[in-house]
């Protein structure tokens, strides 16, 4: 009882919320301070690790090129996320509606989930041309399909027996059952899948840039900065990538929160 | 006193029956290592139009199963179930009954209003008429102030009342209720019982009512059907037609005839005569 109380309060009581937010911030500042101190006092070379101060300086001075990189990589990740999500959701709908489709796709999904998808990037660059973003979008989309598909399918199968009975007792048609019970039941699961997939989309789109394609993205910028031994700049781009991934995660998390606010009664 | 086809409030010489269950068996096949369960064996039951019948019996004796067969949510292994002279399936497709489940079974993503109006929405009533009807129903179950709340913001008893309102939405001629008052406190419970008697009298609906409470069964019913478990059988049918619905008010709860009937039902439930009426179980 007593230990459950603070957890339940964490969302409500502003003072507890403050503390929950403050703790990681304090830790972060502390770590950065120690890092800075260590780099300065031990005179660590920038190719081992640059100081946070140096990284931050480069981040500010190169902000426009970092924003460009974030835009390119972010767009690829977003398009991949949308395309992959649509394929995953439609596939899950088909699989839950027809068991034969489910049986057919099960091994395919299992195979897709073990393929290191970014490893396909070089192949896709030769297929779609190294001058286009297509290969990167495809890599992001492919990495999104499986988690979205699996979560959606799971959600579609969570319909409670009493709800099925309820709809049957009212002689509801199949589309009515889908609209009033099956889809609302699955919705929170879909968004859980999207939250997991959103980080994957960013990571995949970024890593895919390491294997070729046009310049401009964060991944490309990180490699070229590192290649020209500008390590603080490389780290500044990494910081940009972290912020991009965080943005994707937070947005999808908030959407998921919204859709799970009323779940589970009686 | 006439018992088997006691007329309901509609009376009017109608001879149709609301529910006819004939020699019904329901065997749940064994799954894996478990043995098969004979949930219902040779069950015959007739519920007249407008009649209030309670099913009472120990846990697992097949009350919910019988209700599900009537609702065509499950099919008998053998025997027939007819509702208003039609096969149960036809009656279900014709929206002939309203049902309240043992678990409230509300849709958590819908507000109280949206939950209550679900049957009306599914069957194409227009929005304006729906809102009016929902207003009436929420008034009836005392939840007008909670119209915009969501099920996870309600207590268990409040959720059950929403489910009851939902089952009444289309003014069905047959109400199937599976322990609808199970999670209610004694005061709300008695109020809901009085309301149910009134609704039954007003709409002339037949009611099949599952309960674990003997006084509740006796207070509400024209007949109390006593069941026994494994295999689920009807042990006896105790008439409780101690007066028309109009007479079943709170004073009836203190009536000598009421206690007499309670004692009779207890006897049948326990299989042995029980002397005295003290300690009547209430849940
Ligand atoms: N879907 C099912 N599959 C297998 N067995 C079932 C199923 N439904 C019910 N049974 C069995 O049938 C018997 C009667 O169940 P039922 O739910 O009708 O009991 P009940 O009288 O409603 O009990 P309670 O008062 O606890 O609600 C039980 O022994 C149960 O195990
Ligand atoms: Mg039951």
Automatic annotation (TrEMBL), chain A:
Pfam families, sorted: BPD_transp_1 (PF00528)
Membrane topology: Multi-pass membrane protein
GO biological process: transmembrane transport
ABC transmembrane type-1 domain ranges (all copies): 70-255
Name of the protein this chain belongs to: ABC nitrate/sulfonate/bicarbonate transporter, inner membrane subunit
Membership in a protein family: Belongs to the binding-protein-dependent transport system permease family.
Compartments it resides in: Cell membrane
UniProt superkingdom: Bacteria
One GO CC term on file: plasma membrane
InterPro entries listed in its UniProt record: MetI-like, MetI-like_sf
Transmembrane segments: 20-38, 77-101, 108-128, 134-150, 189-213, 233-255
Protein's UniProt keywords contain Amino-acid biosynthesis: no
Keywords: Cell membrane, Membrane, Transmembrane, Transmembrane helix, Transport
């Amino acid at each position: 009882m007593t230990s459950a109380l603070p957890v339940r309060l964490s969302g409500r009581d502003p003072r507890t919320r403050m503390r929950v937010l403050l703790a990681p911030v304090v830790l972060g500042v502390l770590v950065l301070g120690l890092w800075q101190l260590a780099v300065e006092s031990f005179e660590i070379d920038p190719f081992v690790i640059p100081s946070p101060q140096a990284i931050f300086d480069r981040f500010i001075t190169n902000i426009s090129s970092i924003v460009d990189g974030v835009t390119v990589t972010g767009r690829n990740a977003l398009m991949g996320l949308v395309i992959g999500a649509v394929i995953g959701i439609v596939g899950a709908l088909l699989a839950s509606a027809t068991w034969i489709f489910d049986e057919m796709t099960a091994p395919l999904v299992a195979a897709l989930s073990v393929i290191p998808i970014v490893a396909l990037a070089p192949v896709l660059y030769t297929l779609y041309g190294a001058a286009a973003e297509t290969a990167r979008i495809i890599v992001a989309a492919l990495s999104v399909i499986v988690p979205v598909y699996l979560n959606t399918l799971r959600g579609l199968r969570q319909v409670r027996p009493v709800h099925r009975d309820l709809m049957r007792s009212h002689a509801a048609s199949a589309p009515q059952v889908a609209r009033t019970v099956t889809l609302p039941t699955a919705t929170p699961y879909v968004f859980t899948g999207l939250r997991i997939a959103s980080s994957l989309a960013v990571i995949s789109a970024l890593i895919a840039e390491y294997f070729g394609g046009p310049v401009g993205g964060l991944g490309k910028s990180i490699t070229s900065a590192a290649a020209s031994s500008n390590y603080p700049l490389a780290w500044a781009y990494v910081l940009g990538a972290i912020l991009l991934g965080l943005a994707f995660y937070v947005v999808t998390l908030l959407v998921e929160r919204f859709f799970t606010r009323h779940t589970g009664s009686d | 006193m006439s018992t088997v086809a006691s007329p309901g409030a509609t009376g009017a010489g109608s001879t149709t029956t609301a529910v006819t269950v004939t020699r019904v068996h329901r065997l749940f096949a064994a799954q894996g290592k478990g043995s098969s369960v004979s949930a219902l064996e040779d069950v015959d039951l007739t519920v007249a139009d407008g009649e209030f019948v309670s099913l009472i019996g120990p846990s697992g004796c097949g009350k919910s199963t019988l209700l599900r067969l009537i609702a065509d949510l499950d099919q008998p292994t053998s025997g027939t179930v007819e509702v208003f002279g039609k096969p149960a399936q036809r009656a279900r497709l014709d929206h002939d009954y309203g049902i309240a489940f043992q678990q409230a079974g509300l849709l958590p993503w819908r507000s109280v209003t949206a939950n209550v109006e679900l049957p009306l929405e599914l069957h194409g009533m227009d929005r304006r008429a729906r809102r009016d009807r929902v207003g009436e129903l929420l008034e009836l179950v005392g939840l007008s102030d909670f119209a915009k709340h969501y099920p996870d913001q309600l207590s268990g008893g409040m959720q059950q009342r929403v489910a009851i309102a939902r089952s009444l939405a289309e003014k069905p001629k047959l109400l199937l209720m599976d322990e609808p008052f199970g999670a209610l406190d004694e005061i709300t419970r008695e109020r809901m019982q009085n309301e149910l008697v009134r609704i039954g009298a007003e709409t002339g609906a037949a009611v099949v009512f599952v309960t674990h409470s003997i006084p509740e069964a006796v207070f509400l019913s024209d007949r109390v059907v006593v069941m026994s478990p494994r295999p689920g059988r009807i042990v006896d049918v105790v008439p409780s037609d101690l007066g028309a619905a109009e007479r079943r008010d709170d004073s009836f709860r203190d009536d000598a005839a009421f206690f007499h009937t309670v004692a009779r039902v207890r006897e049948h439930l326990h299989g042995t005569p029980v002397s005295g009426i003290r300690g009547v179980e209430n849940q």
